[in-house]
Amino acid sequence: MNPRALFVELIQIVGSSKAKALITSEFGDISRLWMRDRIDEQIWFDLLAKARKVAEGEPLEYVTKRREFMGLSFHIEPGVFIPRHETEELVEYAMDMINEGEIFLDIGTGSGVIAISLSYYRGVRGYAVDISRKSIEVAKKNAEEHGVLERITFIEADVFSIPWVFKEVDFIVSNPPYIPRSFLRKLPRDVKREPTEALDGGEDGLDFYRKLFVDSLDFIRGKKVLLEFAPYERTGLERLLVFREVEWYRFMRDLAGVERFVEVLV
Ligand SMILES: C[S@@+](CC[C@H](N)C(=O)[O-])C[C@H]1O[C@@H](n2cnc3c(N)ncnc32)[C@H](O)[C@@H]1O
C-alpha cells in the first residue's frame, strides 16, 4: 500500500489538516510517511477507521488521544475536556502573576494543562481540583509524564465542598464551565461529545463565578484570582464583581483582541 494513496484517502474523509494530524499521531511526523515505501495493511486499516470516527463527529483529540498545549504534549481521553488555544494565553498571564514560592489552585483542572504548565515552566507548587474522576486520573498521568507529579496535589471534588483549599493558596486560576445552558444544544456536534460538567455554566453561564464571588467570598479574600470567561458574559461578570465590592479587577484581551480573562484582587 503506498503512502500517497493513504494520504489522499484520509483527506477525502476528513480534509487535509485532520488527515495530517492523524498521520502525525501515527508516525510522529508527516515526513516519516513519505520516507516509507509502503504502509502496513493494519496501520492503513486503523487510520481509516480513526478518520471515519472523526468524520462522524468524534473530536480529533479523542481519536488521537493527544493535544499540544504550551509546547507540551498532553494525553486526552473521552470524558475529559479538550484544552483550547485561548487557555494558553490564560497560562501566559498566570505565569506573569505567580511569584516564586506562591501556591496555586487550579479549579477544574481537566487534563491538568494549566497546573502542569505552571509547575513545569515556573517550578511552583499547587493544588489541582476537578469534580470528574476521569479528569483527575488523566491529569495525574500527564503530571507524571512531565515530571511534576510531586509538585501538584490532585483532588477529586466539587471545589465548593472543600473550602479549606482556598485558605491554603495564594493564587487561584480557572477556566471554568461557562456556557449558558440554552446554548448547549446548539454547540457543534464534536463539542457536544465533551463532558457536560465541563461546559454547563448554568442559566446565564455565570453559575461558577457566582459560587466563587458570592458563596465563597470569605474564603478567597486577599487572594489573586485569574479566570477565563466567555466574551459575551463580560457585562454580567463585571456587574457581579462591582456588586461584591472586590478590591480591584481588570479585564484582559486574548490574541484576537477580545476580552476573555479577568484578574481580580478579592
Ligand atoms: C472548561 S473545563 C477546563 C479544563 C482545563 N482546565 C482546561 O482548560 O483545559 C472545566 C473543568 O471544570 C470541572 N468542574 C466543573 N465544575 C467543577 C467544580 N464545582 N469543582 C471542580 N471542578 C469542576 C469540569 O469537570 C472540567 O474538567
Quick overview of this protein structure:
The strands form two sheets. The chain has a seven-stranded mixed beta sheet, covered by helices on one side. Strands 1-2 form a two-stranded antiparallel sheet.
Task: Please explain how this structure is put together.
This protein is α/β, with parallel strands linked by helices. It folds into two domains: 3-56, no CATH class; 66-265, Rossmann fold, CATH 3.40.50.150. It contains 15 helices and nine strands. The strands form two sheets. Strands 5-4-3-6-7-9-8 form a seven-stranded mixed β-sheet, covered by helices on one side. α7 links the parallel β3 (103-107) and β4. α2 crosses α4. The longest helix is centred in the first third of the chain and has 15 residues, at 41-55. The model has no long low-confidence stretch (mean pLDDT 95). The chain binds S-adenosylmethionine. Residues 81, 83, 87, 107-111, 113-114, 129-132, 135, 158-160, 175-177, 197-198 line the site of S-adenosylmethionine.
What are the SSEs and their pairings?
Layout: H1 3-14, H2 16-27, H3 30-34, H4 41-55, H5 60-64, E1 66-69, E2 72-75, H6 86-97, E3 103-107, H7 113-122, E4 125-130, H8 133-145, E5 152-156, H9 164-167, E6 171-174, H10 181-184, H11 189-192, H12 196-199, H13 207-215, H14 217-220, E7 224-228, H15 234-243, E8 248-253, E9 259-265
Parallel strand pairs: 3-4, 3-6, 4-5, 6-7
Antiparallel strand pairs: 1-2, 7-9, 8-9
